[in-house]
Design goal:
about 140 residues; mainly beta; seven-stranded mixed barrel; two-stranded parallel ribbon
Length: about 140
């Protein structure tokens, strides 16, 4: 799944804080120029920043199951939802969390994180030069 249309900068609000980030719920999603599909999610209250990746921009084949309840939580239809994964740079490369995607209503900025129990979605999938299959398609 890919972000339905190009995003520039978008104010993003979570109904509840992401795990480990309380009490922050308001962020700004900013495209990182020169890095295909890479975004910074910056807290509006302090200097906290997360890197988010549009999976298609990172060469991932990633189509997680999005329930009607998850889409309803952010007031989005399937065509209005941006699906992002948290990217973590490290000494051995960049890994992404495919088990807990962040959903953003690209029209309103409403956001939520979905957490899957399915081990087919790794918490630390390393990005590579070749496309990566996720969600049991490997």
């Amino acid at each position: 799944m890919t972000t339905p249309f190009p995003l520039a900068n978008l104010d993003v609000d979570f109904a509840t804080s992401l795990p480990g980030l309380a009490p922050r719920t308001s962020f700004r999603l900013e495209r990182i120029e020169g890095a295909e599909g890479l975004f910074a999610l910056r807290s509006t209250s302090d200097d906290l920043r997360l890197f988010l990746l549009d999976p298609a921009g990172g060469g991932l084949v990633y189509d997680p199951p999005l329930t009607a309840a998850a889409l309803g939580e952010i007031g989005a239809s399937a065509g209005e939802v941006g699906v992002f994964v948290v990217a973590n740079p490290g000494e051995d490369g960049v890994s992404v969390n495919l088990r807990a995607p962040i959903l953003v209503n690209v029209r309103t900025g409403a956001a939520a994180q979905v957490i899957f129990d399915d081990p087919a979605y790794p918490i630390r999938a390393r990005l590579s030069e070749r496309p990566v299959e996720a969600g049991g398609a490997a």
